[in-house]
Amino acid sequence: MIIVTGGAGFIGSAVVWKLNGTGRDDILVVDNLGLTDKWKNLVNRRYLDYMHKTAFIEKLVNGQIDNIDVIVHMGACSSTTEPDADYLMENNYHYSRRLAQFAVYRNIRFINASSAATYGDGSRGFSDNPDGLDRLAPLNMYGYSKHLFDLWARRHGVLDRLASLKFFNVFGPNEYHKGDMRSVVVKAFAQVRETGVIRLFKSYRDEYEDGGQKRDFVYVKDCADIIGWLIEHPDVNGLYNIGTGRSRTWNDLARAVFSAMGMEPRIEYMDMPETLRDRYQYFTEAETDRLAAVGCPSVFTPLEDAVADYVNRYLRQADPHL
Fold this sequence. Notes:
This protein is α/β, with parallel strands linked by helices. It has helices at 10-21, 53-61, 85-104, 141-155, 184-195, 220-232, 250-260, 274-277, 289-293, 303-315, and strands at residues 2-5, 27-31, 49-52, 70-73, 109-115, 163-167, 169-171, 198-201, 214-215, 217-219, 238-242, 248-249, 267-270. Helix 1 (10-21) crosses helix 6 (220-232), helix 3 (85-104) runs parallel beside helix 4 (141-155) and helix 5 crosses helix 7.
């Protein structure tokens, strides 16, 4: 059996989609559905059962769940603006640590979601070499909570017995429940339909034009492919960036949305909230050599093709879910 925590969430439900596509439905989905619309991400999926995250961890440590082959741990609070640091410590760090300890010491394959938010403003690079973990300085508590897990895994000698994945700017189907944390693609699609214009943040650095801030945008289907490969290769462990290795501007992204919708670009620039200006990443770009070195056949969908797939196969459809 495969356990997918956060299995009703964005990347987690894409992992379930990938597993279903390979014929696997022996999946326990773990999440916290609450009052959200995350349940809609499960409607098209096949799985054994659903369990709330609190009940799951209690039953797991008490030996009430067995026959586990793999734990794919995508569950976390992913809001970069979440103000409750104690909540993030418990939900993102301590919970992840308990799961990892359970899995590693029972030789269960464990794949963890880390984040490129651990790299902070990027001035210290984007190397996923674990030797450089001590140099990183996350800009927000979310990134710090993810960073703490990677530090713990290295310190306790288990980083070579699990895979921890630093996701860059992921976008794609099944992110609709994420509110303000949805990707700019889905927000821009709605803006174009409503106003014909996409609004981006102004730049506050001379070296970047307005909309010229850069990100490593990666399609969620490509992330699911990599996780599927890692499930099939339990000997591949360590810390790995999940990004294309090529940064693109927000202007590029906006133009890709207009192109996918068959429209001429109309981009306007707005002031960035002052609360974000000191914590804003102007540049991210994954170093991908380590992932390539272990033989992962990661072929990332070009930005324009990924946006076109997202817009036309999902956002424009009555049912936009995987």
